[in-house]
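quick one before i forget lol
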Amino acid sequence: MKTRAPTAPTAEGWRELVTPEGVDLRLKVGAYAERFAALLIDFIILLGSLAVFSLLCLLVFAGTKVSWGSEALGVIWLLGLFVGRNFYFVLFEMGPRAATPGKRAMGLRVAAANGGRLTADMVFARNAMREVEVILPLTFFAARGEGVDAALVALGAIWSCVFILFPLFNRDRRRMGDLVAGTLVVKAPKTVLQPDLADTERGLARGFAFTPAQLDAYGIKELHVLEDVIRAADRKAMAAVASRIRSKIAWNGPTDIADRTFLNAYYAALRGRLESRMLFGRRRKDKFDVG
């Protein structure tokens, strides 16, 4: 199913994204202060980690007596700095939470702007631009010069301000890297189930009789989408998803039950089915996985 173009965000910073499954999700774009605080936390963690790594290398160097030890440690130190500086953000944002420790602390995560799946290419692209948006401006601001050199440094600093201030002049608060990669930084949904869902799902599952074939119609990916829909509690989205599921599984049970009740019951039964299959080494990623 094709993804629909995202709609414009509201004045409060909310926007609607349509997933490839056709589900409308309302997400709040991360605020400027939250993103700056997240970046500051990440820089503190990164610099602290690199400082500890450098100290360890220095201690090992002091205790090394072989002639080639200093050269090997120098290479390891440079390699560690390169990996830490260039892959800290990439590795965390490619994880299941799509967020660095700083973003997680501020309740943020990276998402695809078209409502689809966040890919490795997007993560690489948005972080490759950080060199131009953050590192290069810091280099210009720290540089000193006289005469022509001073003028070049000033022009470079002014040019860098375009990248620094870019998020202030677009509705989605996207920096240049987000625009190039097609990503957004949004408020992350809560990772825990709502109390009513967690407390009632087991009882609801016992009240419905889903066949194995009906439960095998979907996989883990659809389970996560269904959880987001239930948690968002949007009546229009729940009605659309419930109708799609009933049609997909050829539901012939009661039709007078509330959409939320049906979705809670199907979610609980599907999760139990997937968990039981995993005990036997079978992990169905999505509805297209027939293995």
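fyi Strands lie at 14-18, 24-28, 108-112, 183-187.
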